[in-house]
TrEMBL record:
Quaternary structure and interacting proteins, as annotated: Heterodimer of HisH and HisF.
Cell compartment(s), UniProt: Cytoplasm
A Pfam family annotated for this UniProt entry: GATase
Catalytic activity: 5-[(5-phospho-1-deoxy-D-ribulos-1-ylimino)methylamino]-1-(5-phospho-beta-D-ribosyl)imidazole-4-carboxamide + L-glutamine = D-erythro-1-(imidazol-4-yl)glycerol 3-phosphate + 5-amino-1-(5-phospho-beta-D-ribosyl)imidazole-4-carboxamide + L-glutamate + H(+); L-glutamine + H2O = L-glutamate + NH4(+)
Gene transcribed to yield this protein: hisH1
GO molecular function terms listed in the Swiss-Prot or TrEMBL record: glutaminase activity; imidazoleglycerol-phosphate synthase activity; lyase activity
Listed name of the protein: Imidazole glycerol phosphate synthase subunit HisH
Length: 206
């Protein structure tokens, strides 16, 4: 069973439908108890960092998410769901994140010719060791991005994928069975569905 966190900031039904397409059962909830007890958890997200943190606090979801991420149960953050894992975000001000991983979320500062937001298909580069949920053809895989901010982890060892958009940035992190992507796997066709399938079938590591 996949649990998808509802805090009114993500394309929840798209994520749920993608999980169902790969044969997984997924339900959407904002119940802190269900989130705390989840077998596998997805934190999607679209929108602003500060607004998202305010909504998580309003729904009493901050502590359940922080506690879950300290276990080794499978977790997948998507787009804003990646950014919220870090200490600080600077979108529209300075806001405290979940603090699961040290680092910050900053706005793209790109040379002429590179529009912000970064929107559309792009390839990724693997930072070994490879994450077990990644497709086998990852070196040639395209994924779909829509974002103006990106994460800067304090620990480079958590970076699983990078992407080049007028300069390199972190496209995915991994710590144990905690994964999070800047791209949208649910919008990334076959490669994204393969990543979601592998997440759903992931063998939990001790």
């Amino acid at each position: 069973m996949i649990t998808i966190v509802d805090y009114q900031m993500g394309n929840l039904r798209s994520v749920q439908k993608a999980m169902e397409r790969v044969g997984a059962t997924a339900h959407i909830t904002s119940d802190p108890k269900e989130i705390a007890a989840a077998e596998r958890l997805i934190l999607p997200g679209v929108g602003g960092f500060g607004e998202a943190m305010a909504e998580l606090k309003r729904r009493d979801l901050v502590s359940p998410l922080q506690d879950y991420c300290q276990t080794n149960r499978p977790f997948l953050g998507i787009c804003l769901g990646l950014q919220l894992l870090f200490d600080t975000g600077y979108e529209g001000g300075t806001f405290e994140g979940l603090g699961v991983l040290p680092g910050e979320v900053v706005r793209f500062q790109r040379p002429a010719g590179f529009k912000v937001p970064h929107m559309g298909w792009n390839t990724v580069n693997v930072c070994p060791p490879t994450a077990p949920i990644l497709p086998d053809n990852i070196a040639e895989a395209y994924f779909y991005f829509v974002h103006s901010y990106y994460v800067v982890p304090a620990d480079p060892n958590v970076v699983a994928l990078t992407c080049d958009y007028g300069g390199e940035f972190c496209a995915m992190i991994r710590r144990g069975n905690l994964f999070a992507t800047q791209f949208h796997p649910e919008k990334s066709q076959a490669n994204g569905l393969e990543l979601l399938r592998r997440f759903a079938e992931l063998t939990v590591e001790d």
